[in-house]
Specification:
Helix content is about 45%, strand content about 10%. By secondary structure, it is an alpha+beta fold. Among the domains are: about 1-40 and about 75-175, Biosynthetic peptidoglycan transglycosylase-like (Penicillin binding protein transpeptidase fold), CATH 1.10.3810; about 175-260, Penicillin binding protein transpeptidase fold. The strands form 5 sheets. The chain has a 5-stranded mixed sheet with strand order 2-1-5-11-12, covered by helices on one side. The chain is elongated, with a radius of gyration of 34 Å. The protein starts with a helix and ends with a helix. One of its GO terms (cellular component) is plasma membrane. One of its GO terms (molecular function) is penicillin binding. It comes from Salipaludibacillus agaradhaerens.
Length: about 625
């Protein structure tokens, strides 16, 4: 009885709606009245479609596909292959370009079938109706939903061009297995773009949306093939393809090649996510808001908004172009893992192309997994003597114009209760700056910081990207790396690039640019150059850092190369941290070794593991 009442109601509604539409199309004023009614009764919300985002390496290769529940790659109308349009028009809506959003003939035909079966067997839905259902309504099989669908469809046709409707439809239609739209479906099932598919493959894919569960190619391909043949017949019937095309497509073998989501280089990708958040924070004002936040609660609210903004962008189909060099990254990861994975020692590396000021590789720890604690940029440790070139020697040369051959007193020094010692308690007298640095004399370093002045030296250091160095660190022990929170290996490596760039610092970045789906640039880091030291200062520093490798504490870091090599070791109290940071003509690379729960690496230090690892990494990328 309810079925009969529903049938009578839908007949009545269709009749009234048809007459109303016919009358209102006769007179413009009536049409405007109908549109006013629809504007009030049917609210078309702003359409926001999730689309896949990509992270690319320096050569434009995809290294990470980013999508959540909706796997979609949006294609604008002019990039949608004509054969896909023809397949769906032939199979789903042959009068699409003529009807006002609904097809009364199709509805009547479906109604007769439903009467015969005493159930809702067919819907008679146009492409516009299906779009309305996908975007604004549910998929419930009810007459109430069907009536809403008609109203929404007609309204959509009034505010959108036919091409816009077809574009949206082909990007929102569901292809089973979490895949939406023809481009994502082409990638998922055939590992090709939509433009690369054959006619047979297009007809095969176009079969799925009619009933995604029944025509799922992975679980019921026989049914999919059967409907494919039906679609090809419809395409021939509508003169979209010739008889030869039809016969050839029928005989064409379909071979699925399931898509595998790209998610390579987890160490580097994790850092890219972090840098993307920093870039958006800077460009959209969140960074300034965080800086000005009055309390922790306000700061937390801003951080939540920033993270939501990042997720919104990632769901909009952006492309993040990076400087990753896959060969350098793979070599660095392999070298660290081969040496350390069987131990409880952790290691992290940052490799920077200092001429381009780009981060080409970064590791997060041994056997690193994506989004875990990243020791490359999140681990803050005491830098030991590796801080001396930046905080001690370069400021001295820059302010006094001394040279590497100038003498400095390396004898005992006491300032208040502070009395630093050299390694093994050794006592020295007057030595050259070169000797003091290459042999890492602590007494000389503290005396130099005292001579230059703590504030003057930190004024130099503040021009780099050290995030956790504060006024609390402005003390003499800082000359030996005694900092309250320390530095990350990536921060230290960034700062060391200045010894290869004539004293001009440009903050190295991983992200080259962020682009929207149309290829328009959304964000890029502004290139800001800061002259920290004079060219003469850098030349003297390069001489001394070169001697560290040829004659000093970094001799085991040396490898055969025709270009420059220079760097500095670092060891902290009780051998908790081992460092080496240095440059060749092309790369500046920093290495840190330690344990998550700090304990002595004395034996490893004696075996020069840090300098040897640095050498192995650098030799393998030159």
């Amino acid at each position: 009885m309810r079925m009969m009442a529903g049938n009578l109601f839908i007949i009545l509604f269709i009749g009234i709606f048809t007459l109303f539409f016919m009358e209102t199309t006769k007179e413009m004023s009536s049409a405007q009245s109908l549109q006013t009614v629809l504007d009030d009764a049917v609210e078309l919300e702003q359409i926001t479609l999730h689309s896949n985002s990509l992270i690319l390496d320096r050569d434009g290769n995809t290294i990470s596909d980013i999508f959540s529940a909706e796997n979609r790659i949006y294609l604008p109308y002019n990039e949608i292959p004509d054969m896909f349009k023809h397949a769906f028009l032939a199979a789903e809506d042959q009068s699409f370009f003529d009807h006002p959003g609904f097809d009364m003939t199709g509805i009547a035909r479906a109604f007769i079938v439903n009467i015969q079966h005493q159930s809702i067997e067919q819907g008679g839905s146009t492409i516009t109706q299906q779009l309305a259902r996908n975007l604004y309504l549910t998929h419930d099989q009810s007459y109430e939903r069907k009536i809403s669908e008609l109203l929404y469809s007609y309204h959509i046709e009034q505010v959108m061009e036919k091409e816009e409707i077809l574009e949206l439809y082909l990007n929102t239609v569901y292809f089973s297995n979490g895949v939406y739209g023809i481009e994502a479906a082409s990638h998922y099932y055939f590992n090709k773009t939509a433009h690369e598919l054959t006619l047979a493959e297009i007809a095969f894919l176009s079969s799925v949306p009619n009933n995604p569960a029944h025509y799922n190619p992975l679980t019921n391909s026989d049914a999919t093939h059967e409907r494919k043949e039906w679609i090809l017949a419809k395409m021939k019937e509508q003169d979209y393809i010739s008889n030869d095309d039809y016969e050839e497509a029928l005989d064409k073998k379909i071979s699925l090649s399931n898509f595998e989501k790209s998610d390579e280089y987890p160490d580097y990708i994790t850092y890219v996510y972090y840098e993307l958040e920093q870039l958006i924070a800077k460009e959209e004002g969140y960074a300034q808001q965080l800086k000005s936040a009055s309390n922790d609660e306000a700061r937390q609210d801003i951080e939540i908004k920033l993270q939501e903004r990042v997720q919104h962008l990632l769901a909009s189909g952006i492309t993040v172009d990076t400087a990753l060099d896959p060969n350098v990254q793979s070599h660095a990861v392999k070298t660290i893992n081969n040496r350390l994975s069987s131990t409880d020692i952790q290691g992290a590396v940052s490799v920077i192309d200092h001429e381009a000021s780009e981060i080409v590789a970064m590791t997060g720890g041994t056997s690193y997994e994506k989004f875990n604690f990243h020791r490359g940029y999140q681990a803050y440790r005491q830098p030991g003597s590796a801080i001396k070139p930046l905080l001690v020697y370069a400021p001295l040369i820059d302010t006094t114009k001394m040279s590497s051959s100038s003498l400095i007193d390396a004898g005992p020094i006491r300032r208040g209760q502070y009395e630093p010692q050299n390694f093994g308690g050794a006592v020295y007298g007057k030595v050259t700056l070169e000797e003091a640095l290459k042999n890492s004399y602590n007494t000389a370093a503290v005396r130099i910081l005292d001579m230059v002045g703590i504030e003057a030296s930190f004024n130099y250091l503040d021009q780099f990207d050290f995030k956790k160095i504060t006024s609390n660190d402005h003390v003499l022990p800082a000359a030996l790396g005694g900092l309250s929170e320390g530095v990350s290996v990536h921060e230290l490596t960034q700062a060391y690039t200045i010894f290869a760039t004539d004293g001009i610092y440009t903050s190295p970045k991983a992200i080259r640019g962020v682009y929207d789906m149309d290829g328009e640039l959304l964000y890029e880091w502004p290139r800001k150059e800061t002259e920290v030291w004079t060219n003469d200062t850098v030349n003297e520093m390069r001489k001394m850092l070169g001697k560290v490798i040829t004659e000093g504490t970094g001799r085991r870091a040396r490898f055969s190369t025709s270009g420059y090599l220079g760097g500095k070791t670092g060891t902290t109290n009780d051998y908790h941290d081992l460092w080496f940071v240095g440059s060749s003509n092309r790369y500046t690379t920093g290495l840190w070794l330690g344990k998550d729960n700090p304990s002595s690496l004395y034996q490893q230090s004696q075996n020069h593991i840090h300098t040897q690892l640095w050498r192995d990494i650098m030799a393998g990328i030159h």
